[in-house]
Amino acid sequence: MKKLIISLVLMSGYAHAQQETILTLPEAIAHALEHKAEAEKARLNIRRGDAQIAEVKASAYPNISFNSSTSYNPLLQQTVLPGEIFGVPGEQIKVSFGQKWTSSNMVQLTQVLFNQSVFTGLKAAQSTKEFYLINAELTEEQIIEKVANAYFQVYQAEQMLDNAESNFAITQQTVRIIKGLYDAGLARKIDYDRVVVAQNNLSSAVQQTSNAVALSENALKFIIGMPMSAEIELPEQSFEPAVLHSGQEDFSGRTELRLAEKQLELLEWQKKATEAEYYPTVALSANYGFLGQGEKMPWWNGQKNGVFWSDMASIGLNINVPIFNGFATKSRIELNKIEIEKAQADLKDTKLGLDLEFKNAITQLDNNRTMISMQSENVELAENVLSNTRSNYQHGLATLNDILDAERDLTEAKNNLTKAKLDYKLAEINLLKSQGKLTTLK
User: Fold this and answer.
1) Integer Cα distance of 390 and 301 in angstroms
2) Where does the signal sequence lie (predicted)?
3) Average pLDDT over residues 97-109
4) Which of 7, 248, 382, 427 could form a disulfide with 365 if both were Cys (CB 3.0 to 4.6 A apart)?
């Protein structure tokens, strides 16, 4: 019984701890960067860059191989020779050349002495790894942006739920007021029925908004790679407007720009690799091996069994000088130049897009800060209007329609304020993105 009680207490504490788990934005981003497939793929691409460099380096290292070939010749080729060779003038004699068994075992070494394409490939492979590193940074920024947007979508849903619950409580107060007046004979039954209908509608709206909160939380869990069964709670968020950035922004550090420039660099290396086809290649080769011939299987027989072994070796220098290939290399270089020009046009467009993104982010942030101020005033005014309308209704100076309209105006004002706050946070994220500072959210 004691063990059971202790277990129940621990389980209760664990469940309570789960409910009280607070997920901050940096924690959500860290979880996404560790568990999402996009981040893992980016890390694997960096490893891929290392493997590509190692692969290209292998072309500059000595290449050593061993070849073994054993054959059995049941019928030896015969050649007809003049009989004079054998002291038989006027005759033609058939002579068989070779042996029934032949075994050749050779070790071969090849070393590239000069190959311009290998040297170019080494430099291109290093640039490829740098491309993967920059792409990993871009992937990280994209994940941060997605997580931040989903994170504040949860805030909006929760705030909308708070608004719905607050409006439901206000309508409940109205129902109690109308009920009291109706019981005292100072209000009509139709007025009471109408506010009850409004209360029921708001109750349904609260349930729908609660479902929206659950859906937005699930979306956030998916984006950060968290199990759907996990319980999360977001801390209170401040929506105080930040100091706006002004002036001309320097985009040289933007990941998108560095990635485009690195892509252009890779295309330049590709062009140089094609130009390397004009260069000669020089390679050193060396061979050493043994040849066994005889009537029996050479592997385990020697001269006493009719098998004769002899070693052989050779050293060579191979030079290949390209002379003419039908202008194929020239055509490929022209294609490389076209791709480079296209990449330069994309780079120019990227710079223009970054400037537009920055200017729009500044404008949106400024507008949303103004909207927050205006909607805050609207909420305060709507609350005062509702309070005065209730008082006037009790004194016969306002109708029930006036009360319901005032409640709807208050609901709309609160929801508009919530949307303005969310738009402000999203504009803040866009500004950080345009400045290349999304990683500061981590």
Assistant:
1) 116
2) 1-17
3) 86
4) 427
